[in-house]
Each structure stands twice: as C-alpha cells, then as structure tokens.
Design goal:
With 320 residues, the protein is of the alpha/beta class. Helices cover 29% and strands 23% of the residues.
Length: 320
C-alpha cells in the first residue's frame, strides 16, 4: 500500500469575479522514503494542492477528490480529525520562516509546545528533544540559541529552525513549500543537503514545492510538473531532466542557468504569461506561449503514458 495516494484532487475558489479553478484533477502517489517535487510557475496550483491535503485552504476554497493516507481519506476528515495527523504524521515547512515563526515567542516555546501537545512530553523532555533537533539541523550552540527569538536568527538559520520543527514528531511525510526561495544560493544548497540527509536517516517522505528545477535534482526521485492547475508532465528526475516531453517542462529547464554551457550565456525565458484561471482558454492551456503549437492544440490534450511510465499532456507525443 502506498503511504499517500491522491486521486482526482480538485481545488476551486469562489471570488467576486467568478470561480477560480486552481487545481484540476491531480493524481500522484507517495511511498515511504520517497521524494517528489511539484514544480511550476507561480499560480500553477502547487501550493493549493498541498494546502488542500492539509485542510488549510482559505475560507472561500473548496476541494474534492481523495487523498488516502495509510487507508484513511484525508479529504473526508473534519478539522479535528485532521489535527490528529497534522504535525505528527504530516508536517509542513512554509515558504517564509519569518512569518511562519511567532516573533513574540522564543524558539524554545514554539518547539516545546508542539511536543507537549502531540506527544504528551513534559517541558523538560520537550526542551531536550528540541535541542537535539536543533543540533541535528546544524544550529551551533543550540542550548543557548533555543532561548532566542526569531529576529535574532538569519534567514538561513530560521529556515533550519522550521526544518527542525517539521521533524520534531518524526512525521511520515514532510511537505516543504519553497523552502529555499528567500535564501542565497549557498544556504539553498545547505538546506537541500540537510533535507536529503534527514530523509535518508529517518525514511521520511518529502514533497518539495518549487518553481526552480535547479534545486530538485539532488533531492528528489520524481517530478510532477504543473501548469494552470493541471499536471502537464510526470516522471523520474532522469526522465524530466534528460528527456522532457512537454514544451513547458523544456522551457523551465532552459530557464535554469548552466555553468557547463560556455557558448550560450543568455537566459531563456518562457514568453507570455500564464492564463487567467477565471477563464481558461479552450484546448491546450499552454498553446499561446508554445513555439511548437499546431492545429491539434486547439483541442485539449489528454495525459498520455509514455515509455517507462512517464506522463505528458501534449499532442506532440502522439504526432508521428
């Protein structure tokens, strides 16, 4: 049995201008120790996918579909039932650690509350375990630093605190939403390496939400590419990096700077903008930005399975 099995996950939001279809029929699975990257531009539906799984959508949002976690459907649970899993079985690291951490509470208070609530530890036991986790994420002098407040930590150190908090209860799944976006490249590499090490040691499955394919290769096994709320490509890291089948995936890869390409120093941006989710175009949603578009793209393409289990939502894969 898969650790997590998501079927036909759909998310929409009611707005004054109409209904926004943020996620349309997403399927994916996760096994113990897996690392799955969900990639795409801002507004592609990456974050709303996992927020729906965690029961954290905004008040105007609704979700449907199934998300089977160890035989229980997360989508059928109310807030009280979800609280049994949030933080203990499934933990989440949010994008901005400065706004995720409470500026009025020191790190000790924020970490020990999690352990005392979910694992019924005493304050002394919770503090000792929190210090051990801070040491595990390589925060120096954790006995002293645990008493400090978030503003006394650098951006990279705050993100390490968030990683430690996410792993406090040894969850089965750790969701990391753009965990390195606001950090410089050196700290990005350190956080990615840290998460890879913790995954190997604890067998925690990781779902990495990112728009940057450059941070995926060293951490993840599989990649799910989203565009306009849909899966447009899915495959292993090797398939996505070395044999991308969808023009959007190819565009994302071309936009990553390469040190091994000395002849071409220019950055290749994907032209145009993502479509308006209030009124999605007919046919392929990427058609207006695609240099390879042809007449068949006026009809909506199906998600086609290719060799090796790779999936692509593009008419080109069926074109002889």
């Amino acid at each position: 049995m898969n650790l997590l099995d998501v079927k036909n996950l759909t998310v929409s939001f009611d707005t004054p201008d109409g209904q926004v279809h943020a996620v349309s029929g997403i399927d994916f699975t996760l096994e113990e120790g897996d690392a799955l990257a969900i990639v795409g531009e801002s507004g592609s539906g990456k974050t709303q996918t996992v927020m729906a799984l965690m029961g954290l959508l905004a008040e105007n949002g609704t979700a449907s579909g199934n998300a089977w976690f160890r035989g229980e459907d997360l989508m059928a649970m109310d807030a009280q039932e979800l609280n049994r899993h949030r933080g203990t079985d499934i933990a989440m690291i949010f994008q901005d650690p400065m706004t995720s951490l409470n500026p009025y509470l020191n790190i000790e208070k924020q970490m020990t509350e999690v352990l005392m609530h979910h694992q019924d530890l005493s304050h002394r036991e919770a503090t000792e375990h929190a210090i051990e986790m801070l040491r595990a994420v390589r925060i120096p002098d954790p006995e002293q630093r645990i008493r400090q407040y978030p503003h006394e930590f650098s951006g990279g150190m705050r993100q390490r605190v968030m990683v430690a908090m996410g792993l406090l209860c040894e969850p089965d799944i750790l969701i990391a939403d753009e965990p390195t976006t606001a950090l410089d490249v050196t700290v990005q590499a350190q956080i990615s390496q840290l998460m890879a090490e913790l995954r190997r040691q604890s067998r925690t499955a990781i779902v990495l939400i990112t728009h940057d394919l450059g941070v995926v290769a060293g951490l993840c096994d599989r990649v799910l590419v989203m565009y306009a709320g849909e899966v447009v490509e899915y495959g292993t890291v090797e398939q996505i990096y070395y044999s991308p089948q969808h023009p959007y995936t190819q565009g994302l890869l071309d936009s990553v700077p390469r040190l091994d390409d000395v002849e071409d120093q220019s950055l290749h941006a994907i032209p145009g903008n993502p479509p308006n989710l209030l009124s999605l175009p007919k046919g392929c949603s990427f058609r207006s930005r695609c240099s390879k578009a042809f007449d068949a793209c006026r009809e909506k393409p199906a998600l086609t399975e290719l060799e090796g289990g790779q999936l692509a939502r593009c008419h080109l894969v069926n074109r002889s």
